[in-house]
Amino acid sequence: MAKFLKVPVDSLPASLMSAENVVHVFSSAGNSTSTRIDYNDGTTTTITHSAQTSYNLRDALSDAIVDATAQSWTNVVFEVVMPSGVTISAITHA
């Protein structure tokens, strides 16, 4: 059964992102405003957000992916616990 992460997006409905087949969750710096999820099929999800602190959004996404994949197949959507002060403005799937 597929697993998805649910995140709030400013001025838009919450967005779902795949939590399966994740290879890497990447932020270029601890205070960056962009975080990328790379999948083993070569696709990516790029999340544009306010500045994170000490990679706290990257870590929140990574933790949510681990939690999601460890749950029963009947639990398919997992809300990401957003770090304080970090808001998502856009999500691009490619």
Account of the 3D structure:
It is built from 1 helix and 7 strands; from the N terminus they run E-E-E-E-E-H-E-E. The chain has one domain. The strands form 2 sheets. A 4-stranded antiparallel sheet has the order 3-4-5-7, covered by helices on one side. Strands 2-1-6 form a 3-stranded mixed sheet. By secondary structure, the chain is α+β, with helices and mostly antiparallel strands. The mean pLDDT is 93. The protein is globular and about 35 Å long.
Poorly predicted spans: none
Count the beta strands.
7
Estimated radius of gyration: 12 Å
What is the count of helical runs? Answer: 1
Average pLDDT confidence is 93
Structural class: alpha+beta
H/E order of the elements?
EEEEEHEE
Main pleated-sheet profile: 4 strands, antiparallel
Global shape: globular
Distance between the termini: 22 Å
Q: How much of the residues is beta strand, in percent? A: 35-45%
Fraction of helical residues: 10-25%
Strand order of the largest sheet: 3-4-5-7
Work out the count of structural domains: 1
